[in-house]
Task: inverse folding
């Protein structure tokens, strides 16, 4: 038996340790949107502002040198965390969305040409769709979508057929932010590379879950945000294989990226600095490093096993409540479980649960195409983290049962449908 209690350390997360809203104790279950920052992260960022607040890379005074060292230490931590061959393959950004936009802009400028093909999937977050749609529009390339099955899995047979068209790149999420579907990335990367396509992974929902290293996954690019792993907002990374980063032109330009200039000829710095124009989010990067150290100390494998146990418990408990319809039934589910309570609107369900202290997300979760494929306009999303408990899932289930009973009493026709 695992000692899960060692993971459930609410005292490390001041936002939720004693959170109250409208007189109710808050049960925070919106971790797919953002996780809570741990005390070590907060302390590290405070220390930066109190003791190291200076710009990086060019200052020869102590504070600048310390800030530079902290930034590069975090780069090394990230490289080890994702299994990169070198820290030079890690580019700091403001988060997953900016990482993907950077990559899409660079591909539009350096790789794509009229008639080329880019693939994405129907389960992608809009942040992994819209940048590629824009890149294709600007370059004259075409964007095609890999379909999703009724169970919420990627249709790998159709992916194989699309790959026969020799796309330049496949953009795919590691884990769906709506269904929690875990995609078989190694198999997908092998298929894509055999067709000559690069593979860009949106790993925003996967990094707490022991995702294999980028080298063993075989992906060419990977993006994620610090705030998905108990770190600060406004900080993330784009990983790229060295040969790709050296080939791509920087999509944004400015200070800190120029090696030499004989106007109008410009020579850029080596990677990763040629992609890091301007002053980075130094406090956020310091907090990013502290978040990785915190996660590593707890153990990603242990975190993954516990969070999967919470999702399985939630799926079993909620699927047993007549009237609740769970979206998808993937073979492997991480991090997120979405459901509807027809004919009630998802927003109304989340609002009523909020009145009892439960923090869940409602809407399309920036995955419009996936909701259309699932045949619903919106859903309620439950997304636990390792500081949540099975008792909190049970409390949520009981609240939903009360909600359904009240709706029935009011004459609303709920409770007639049971999952499975």
Result:
């Amino acid at each position: 038996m695992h000692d899960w209690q060692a993971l459930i350390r609410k005292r490390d997360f001041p936002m939720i340790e004693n959170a109250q809203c409208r007189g109710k104790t808050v049960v925070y279950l919106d971790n797919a949107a953002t996780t809570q920052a741990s005390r070590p992260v907060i302390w590290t960022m405070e220390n930066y502002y109190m003791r190291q607040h200076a710009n990086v890379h060019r200052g020869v005074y102590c504070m600048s040198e310390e800030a530079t060292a902290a930034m590069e230490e975090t780069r090394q931590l990230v490289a080890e965390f994702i299994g990169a061959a070198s820290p030079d393959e890690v580019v700091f950004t403001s988060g997953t969305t900016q990482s993907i936009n950077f990559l899409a802009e660079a591909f539009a400028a350096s790789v794509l040409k009229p008639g080329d093909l880019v693939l994405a999937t129907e389960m992608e977050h809009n942040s992994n769709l819209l940048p590629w749609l824009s890149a294709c529009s600007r370059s004259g390339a075409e964007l095609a979508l890999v379909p999703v099955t009724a169970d919420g899995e990627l249709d790998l047979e159709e992916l194989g057929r699309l790959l026969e068209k020799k796309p330049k790149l496949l953009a795919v999420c590691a884990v769906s932010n709506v269904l929690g579907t875990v995609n078989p990335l190694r198999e997908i990367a092998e298929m894509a590379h055999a067709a000559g396509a690069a593979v860009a992974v949106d790993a925003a929902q996967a990094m707490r879950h022991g995702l294999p290293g980028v080298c063993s996954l075989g992906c060419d690019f990977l993006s994620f945000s610090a705030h998905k792993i108990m770190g600060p907002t406004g900080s993330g990374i784009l990983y790229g294989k060295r040969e790709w980063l050296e080939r791509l032109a920087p999509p944004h330009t400015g200070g800190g990226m120029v090696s030499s200039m004989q106007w109008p000829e410009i020579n850029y710095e080596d990677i990763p600095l040629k992609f890091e124009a301007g002053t980075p989010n130094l406090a956020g990067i310091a907090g990013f490093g502290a978040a990785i150290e915190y996660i590593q100390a707890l153990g990603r494998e242990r975190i993954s096993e516990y969070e999967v146990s919470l999702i399985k418990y939630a799926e079993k408990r909620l699927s047993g409540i007549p009237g609740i319809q769970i979206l998808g039934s993937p073979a492997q589910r991480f991090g997120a479980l979405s459901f509807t309570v027809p004919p009630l609107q998802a927003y109304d369900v989340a609002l009523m649960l909020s009145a009892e202290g439960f923090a869940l997300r409602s809407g399309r979760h920036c995955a419009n195409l996936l909701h259309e494929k699932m045949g619903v306009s919106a859903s309620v999303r439950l997304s636990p983290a390792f500081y949540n408990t099975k008792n909190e899932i049970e409390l949520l289930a009981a609240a939903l049962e009360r909600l359904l009973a009240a709706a029935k009493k009011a004459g609303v026709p709920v409770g007639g449908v049971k999952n499975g």
Residues 175 and 182 are 5 Å apart (CA to CA).
